[in-house]
Amino acid sequence: MTFHILISDPLSEEGIYPLRQAEGMNIVIETDLTPEQLAIRIGDFDALLVRSQTQVTRAIIEKGHNLKIIGRAGVGVDNIDLEAATEHGIIVVNAPDGNTNSAAEHTMAMLMSMARKIPQAFHALRNKNWDRKSFVGVELKNKTLGVIGLGRIGAEVAARAKGQRMNVMAYDPFLTAEKAEKLGIGFGTVEEVLKVADFITVHTPLLKETRHLINADAFAIMKDGVQIVNCARGGIIDENALYDAIQSKKVAGAALDVFEQEPLVDFRLLDLPEVVATPHLGASTIEAQESVAVDVSADVVSYFTTGTVRNS
Ligand code: NAD
Ligand code: MLT
Q: So, what pathway does this thing act in (predicted)?
């Protein structure tokens, strides 16, 4: 029996080794399909493997007459219509921890770049401008980092921030006193954390409850001169409210890896000198890309050979 597998976003070649090794897997890699082309092609496949680019909408799922499993090589499944998949009996698997370390490291890189204005200084230097006055930063040591969402990545970031001798305060609806104690961090309500933090980093999924969690009201209760990082999902921070908070000097720095609309179309925030940004690179390391692709490829093989998967 042959299973037909479509890979519609670029995945690590090493990462799809489990699929290449398994018998009876016909792997088709087509990473430039328009939604219309995907809707036409999808009916031929038993499995679809994506990263975050492919939008697996209800329309696509409804055309996937043979589709049994969708693998998301990464954490967030917000590009897949889960309700439609469930209605059609299609299993959705992701790679929940394959990129945790890379995302945590990227968060720390963004935090430090923002605090020391490294991208801005590099930009000036590249323009042959030896300017040592405009890029005075602030130290992390003894400052309080507020972590909103203490899951896999949030906890790794908290541990690294402790290494920078920061105080860490976290909010997560599932955070227990035991976990906080183990990590050596404080915890409180979201308002309590926002009030005391010098730096804030968000690590929640994008859900109904977390969309615009950081909005104008949230900025209003923060310290003046707070700096904020988003390496989780665009939309957790209200970008219009962030723009206003930077303009009013309430917010002294923002480090953004993710945006409400991706690829980015509204570059207004990036015109502000307080903002540093990357184009959704949190998981873009050789190690993470291999790891997430291995995880979902192994799940697809497992599903077609044993009928079970590690996670769904
Ligand atoms: P996770 O599921 O391990 O952790 C998420 C945490 O958020 C959980 O502990 C959950 O209890 C908490 N949470 C849920 N609702 C909350 C709320 N209203 N307030 C506070 N906390 C809340 O996920 P993770 O692997 O740590 O990923 C975190 C985020 O980072 C996700 O949005 C994921 O998609 C994103 N991510 C981004 C990149 C990137 O490339 N930038 C890479 C990996 C993951
Ligand atoms: C994820 O959710 O895993 C990240 O956003 C990284 C990615 O989309 O590849």
A: Amino-acid biosynthesis; L-serine biosynthesis; L-serine from 3-phospho-D-glycerate: step 1/3
